[in-house]
Specification:
271 residues, alpha/beta, Rossmann fold, six-stranded parallel β-sheet, 9 strands, 37% helix, globular
């Protein structure tokens, strides 16, 4: 039983609970909590409080869509098992998906968000395995969108680190998805423009009981030539659009909310 000591006049009081205490003589040598012990206790209490706040849904801010297609994406996630969303950078595809997942976690409907990225980048880029450090350190650049977006949708300071450290949001490489099955979660396959049809098939087929998957990407940001000729994201968008339980949402430049100048810049690159 944890005990707190309060020093008084002739006797010390040990508080055993909110309704129970004993009196000790003043010459009783009972170990006092050090400053380090108190800091550790406060950190533990803060962690427990944050865990309770998440379980009660107190920390996730209410979602307010900034354009019609964001609202369509939220509706599709509510309605469908699989959602495929394409569109330019800055429209909020990843933001809405993460927000929906946290909202469902806070309500107790699912347990976690699996955030999937493919380790495909520019030509001549070294593979993730060639980089130094632990797997968490290797993946840190890939999960940047998670940290960028979480500060918008949660109130607590340090919530991003907490959610990832507790694997409430669990980053995962595409290469590690094969053979797995995920229940009670939302799977977000982000930046899927750099994926082949078999990659999309692998991720979607991982969906277990009480789970959903969203595949997002910008087909104008395909990094390597092979994905332009056999693009898995576009293939899935058209191949699966008429299947019951699959929703598709397409954003355009008018939906960009990140920064107004981005639409003009993208227009310039399209010319």
């Amino acid at each position: 039983m944890s005990q707190d000591i309060f020093q008084g006049g002739e006797q010390d009081v040990i508080l055993l609970s909110s309704k129970e205490y004993v009196l000790l003589p003043t010459d009783c040598n009972f170990p006092m909590l050090t400053s380090k012990d108190k800091r550790t206790k406060r950190r533990a209490e803060a962690t427990q409080s944050l865990e309770r706040s998440y379980s009660r849904g107190m920390d996730t801010l209410p979602f307010l869509s900034k354009n019609d297609h964001q609202e369509d994406l939220w509706t599709s996630l509510n309605k469908n098992t699989v959602t495929i969303s394409i569109g330019p950078a800055g429209v909020g595809k990843t933001l809405v998906a993460l927000w929906w997942g946290l909202n469902e976690i806070s309500k107790g409907n699912i347990d976690k968000v699996i955030y999937v990225r493919s380790d495909v980048g520019c030509a001549h880029q070294r593979g993730r395995g060639a980089l130094p450090g632990t797997m968490e350190e290797k993946m840190a650049p890939l999960v940047g969108p998670v940290f960028d977006n979480l500060s918008i949708m949660v109130k607590s300071q340090g919530a991003s680190e907490y959610l990832v450290s507790k694997k409430i949001i669990d980053p995962m490489m595409l290469e590690d998805m094969r053979g797995r099955s995920f229940s009670n979660c939302l799977i977000i396959f982000d930046e899927a423009q750099n994926a082949l049809p078999e990659n999309i098939k692998t991720v979607i087929s991982r969906v277990g009981e009480n789970s959903k998957v969203i595949v997002t990407g910008d087909t104008r940001q395909i990094d390597l030539g092979v994905f332009k000729t056999d693009n898995g994201l576009l293939d899935a968008y058209h191949r699966l659009s008429n299947i019951k339980g699959v929703g598709t949402v397409k954003f355009d430049k008018s939906d960009i909310v990140r920064n107004g100048v981005i639409a003009d810049i993208l227009e310039a690159y399209d010319d």
